Amino acid sequence: DEAKQAYTDRNPASLAHHQAATGAMPGGNTRTVLYYDPFPITFARGAGARLWDIDGHEYVDFLGEFTAGIAGHSHPAIRRAVEKAMDSGISLGGHNTFEPRFAALVQQRFPSMELVRFTNSGTEANMLAISTAIACTGRKKVLVFRNGYHGAVFMFSPGANINAPFDYIYGSYNDIAATQAEIEANAADLAAVILEPMLGGGGCISAELPFLQMLRDTTAKHGIVLIFDEVMTSRLSPGGLQAVLGITPDLTTLGKYIGGGMSFGAFGGRADLMARFDPRSPNALPHAGTFNNNVLTMSAGIAALTEVYTPEAANALNAMGEDLRSRLNAVAERHGVAMQFTGRGSMLAVHMTRTPIRSPADAAKGNAKTRDLFFFDLQKAGNWIARRGMMVLSLPLTPADIDSLVDAVEEFATSRAHLL
Ligand code: PLP
Predict the structure, then answer these.
(1) For ligand 1, atom 5, which residue shows the shortest CA distance?
(2) Which InterPro entries does UniProt cross-reference here (predicted)?
(3) Residue 262 to residue 297: CA distance in whole angstroms
């Protein structure tokens, strides 16, 4: 309560802005994830890895737009690409020269995506991938994982949701026996299994290799389409998490940074499945979408993959994340506090518990109050992270920024030790 009061006192312009926004949007909000109590701050601008709010505070951006902002704010190569596209008109109502180049780049990065199609968001990509599996198998059920997140209408955490009305059954993340039994029992009706190979918003919990191998083997045995949602995890190596793990899904969905920070989504995979969308084939599946090939995204995406998030840049950013995570865990251990940092590469999450985190149930044991305090304390010290404790690195962050985050966490562990 004390931290929230101090927060309110420090952010009068954001408070007024929030109150005014409630007149036109429910709770002043159009992206649920951005709301937090007592009110979210409003940003005025960003540059590189820095953000400024409308009360004039400066932050180091350790959220990176929930993984979409890998280039940082106003990266010159992305700006150039967007300006170049704008110079020739925005929505052309026909094919443009950017889209096949961008598709070929995506295909090169993610070889399991033998053919690819673009959408406007990760949510839409997942909608299309699941629909593809249903159309191609003639089956109706979709196995999802509790605490998986695949977009606004694919949210499987506890609480109210407005999910797309597919026929869901549930597996347990990293529970081989229970999930395999669920798949076997429903095999004849199961069109797809969809999962994030590391839960992102669900707390940066990695899927274990034997679990993924079981999923690969069992789905292959029954002709079930295995979909990897790599909307977030595609940043974890030049070829996504599937390249690191050596597991090839039937379909992959992408989003976030690959569009250079513009609205983006893509789905693709096995040529025999994706060929169903070939408009020249009899009974071709339809997939229109006014903005699927919008030139701003196509052009920014080409720049993102060729000039910004090159394979070298991907490896360096993920190494920076590994180093940061081990330093933060070392702080927690040195102070003997109930705090740990999970994740992989450039994606991290804090959990206020000593229990090792292998599943969403383990993560639920974390102390939500001290995690809130972590957010407010870090923010006060000038670090912008997700309210739920997720941290995501972007390319303009410097070693000095990383040091200052470690210092802020050290200060938190010291000053709040009695609560942890
Ligand atoms: N899938 C995952 C794993 C995500 O984290 C997200 C967004 O956070 C989505 C899908 C949805 O993407 P979008 O917000 O672009 O619809």
Answers:
(1) 232
(2) Aminotrans_3 (IPR005814), PyrdxlP-dep_Trfase (IPR015424), PyrdxlP-dep_Trfase_major (IPR015421), PyrdxlP-dep_Trfase_small (IPR015422)
(3) 5
pLDDT for 2 equals 87
Query: What residues does 205 pair with on adjacent strands?
Result: 199
Q: Which CATH number fits domain 2-70+310-419: 3.10.580.10, 3.20.20.60, 3.40.50.2000, 3.90.1150.10?
A: 3.90.1150.10
Q: Which atom of ligand 1 is nearest to the CA of 230?
A: 3
* Best probe residue, ligand 1, of 205, 231, 262 (max atoms within 8 Å of C-beta): 231
Ligand 1, atom nearest to 123 Cα? 16
What pLDDT sits at residue 408? 98
> Cα(first)–Cα(last) distance of the chain, in Å?
17
Measured distance CA(185)–CA(170) in Å, rounded: 12
What's the complex ipTM? 0.99
Which of these CATH numbers, 3.40.640.10, 3.40.50.300, 3.40.1550.10, 3.40.920.10, describes 76-308? Answer: 3.40.640.10
The set of protein residues with a Cβ atom below 6 angstroms from ligand 1 is 66, 121-123, 126, 149-151, 196, 200-201, 229, 231-232, 255, 265
CA–CA dist 305, 59 (Å, integer): 27
Tell me whether the CATH fold assigned to 2-70+310-419 matches the one assigned to 76-308: no
Distance between CA 388 and CA 350 in Å, rounded?
A: 8
pLDDT tens column, 100-146: 999 999 999 999 999 999 999 999 999 999 999 999 999 999 999 99
Please give the distance, rounded to the nearest whole angstrom, from the Cα atom of residue 261 to the centre of ligand 1.
13
- Would you list the domain boundaries of the chain? 2-70+310-419, 76-308
280: pLDDT confidence band, cut at 50, 70 and 90? very high
Model pTM? Answer: 0.98
The mean pLDDT value for 353-376 works out to 96
